[in-house]
Specification:
disordered N terminus, five-stranded mixed β-sheet, 2 domains, alpha/beta, 8 helices
């Protein structure tokens, strides 16, 4: 499809964030295609961004805003790809809906658009968006807290006994946290990450310790 001929064709655009070396654009694109999406174009932000960083302030966020037109479909893995701040996520989704853009998620295949005129349906839609945005911010804050605690714990241990090498990577740990934060069952998380249920239970029960173990071994490798 020729994306320059926007008057004739609609585009399905994937937006993703690559915040660690394991979160490759190819992996996110493969996930979207495996979920049944036919992606015409993709925009990826490279590098980390804080909870307070708005989408339009990101390197590729502004390009995404300029690219999307009425009738386009924006595909994201989950709403936390659009931001980790409650107000920013809500305002961004509403702005896209006002433009006539349809937002769809890879996880759970959810759809948000501005098509409905029924006030009750609007209220339900907006409440769901608000809940998902709040969950995204809460999960981001919990992850940051666990990372800080883990790093401090690793520093306190110094160069003594490192314990058992973690069986999970940074990407797997992030995926476990994301899925658990979204209410996924342990079995589903195990299938998605390839980790044992016991490992996932350990991460769930003590995320700070899981981060500490990973940080300790990362320091050793460095």
């Amino acid at each position: 499809m020729n994306l320059t001929d926007r008057g004739v064709s609609m585009a399905t655009i994937l937006y993703g964030r690559v915040s660690t070396v394991e979160q490759t654009s190819e992996h996110q694109l493969s996930q979207a295609k495996a979920a049944g999406f036919k992606i015409d174009d993709a925009v990826f932000d490279n590098g980390t961004s804080g909870i307070s960083t708005r989408l339009v302030e990101r390197a590729e966020g502004r390009r995404l805003f300029n690219k999307l037109r009425a009738g386009d479909v924006l595909v994201v893995r989950w709403v936390d790809r659009l931001g980790r701040n409650y107000d920013d996520v809500c305002e961004t989704i509403r702005e896209f809906m006002r433009r006539g853009v349809v937002i769809r998620t890879v996880i759970n295949n959810m759809t948000f658009d501005g098509a409905t005129q029924d006030p009750v349906q609007k209220a339900v839609r907006d409440a769901l968006i608000a809940f998902m945005a709040a969950t995204a911010q809460a999960q981001a804050e919990a992850t940051k807290a666990a990372q800080r605690a883990g790093i401090e714990h690793a520093k306190a241990k110094g160069h003594g006994y490192l314990g058992r090498r973690p069986s999970y990577s940074r990407q797997q740990l992030a995926t476990v946290r994301d899925m658990l934060g979204q209410g996924a069952h342990i079995a589903a998380v195990a299938k998605a990450t390839g980790l044992s249920r016991q490992t996932i239970y350990r991460i769930k029960d003590d995320p700070a310790a899981a981060e500490a173990t990973l940080a300790t071994w990362s320091d050793k490798a460095a």
